[in-house]
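dude i think i finally got it to work??
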Amino acid sequence: MIRVIKVFAEAIFWAMIGIGALWLTLPSGFDLKPTNLGGLFANDFARRWDATCAGWTRPLATFHIISDLLLWNAYVVIALVMWRLHPIIKRVPTHRITVSVICLIFLTCGATHLFSAYAAINPIYVFDGAFKTLAGVIGAFGAVYIAHDLVTVYDVIEDEHYRLKVLEAKLARNTNATHSTRVKRNQRGRIVRAIMEGLLWSLLGLLLWLLPTTPITEGFFRNDFASQWTGACTGWTKPLAMLHIIGSWITWSAYVLIGIVVFRLHPISKKVQTARIMVPAVSAVLVTCGVVHLFDAYTIFNPIYVASAWFKLFVAGVSLTGAVLVSQTLVTVFDAAVKERRRLAELEAQLVGAK
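look at this
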């Protein structure tokens, strides 16, 4: 528990450093618009913070900023939990890289929300859209890499379990029984099936565009805001709107893909009961992170910004809860893996001594 608390404290510290560093670029008074640097950091758009983008109010802008910052904190926590607590299987040379890739995916997902919060005050929407696209591409490539590595890890774990059983049988019966052949799964087929399933689930996001877009002036699904798609929110153009839609859609697809890959291919330690909960929890966090970006794409057409803010807050809560579960499970899995490895070494030594 102490290890978990230390990791959480360190993660919150680094998340606050990130927020502070970005906020130092803002004027001392948020009512003053920051200098326009042009190019990728152009900010000549209507601002949400001062309600120049029609329909926005300062309370709503604040709500979005808080929700996005909570998401940033949640994903920094998960990334650091993975980095500090995930067991590294030394027999798989690429596993250290895989853990780093998973951490990078969570950090870039969190950073998209950090920049979204920042854009409410300094509307650098060109950079915001470009970074979402980059995060999605990182996630897509990461999904394929993680899929390959997870099946490799699965084989290593299964081989060690098998060796342990054989050694225990040999010592118990005091025989020189040889290893029988373990039947292995078609791993390439498993990878392809997991990736195809993830892509098919991501296409279900298209169903969101079938929802009616009738005008609503109050309540949870209020949408009487200036539209970014039509350019009613000053400065927006169709190409910029498309950049945000494509970036958000790629990010949504990538995180759904990773979620399915982890759910289908991640080894589950039978000796750790909560491991069966941890893998679905990580998958759920990844998928809900993707859903947030799907909503971002949808709000370009149908600006339901009240609903999207509440959903971000909900996902932040789910992610932080998942981080607690994952951290505790990883500690338990790590301890179990160490004990099993020691047991295997002891049995091998006893077998050599018996000969």
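The longest helix spans residues 305-354.
im so relieved honestly
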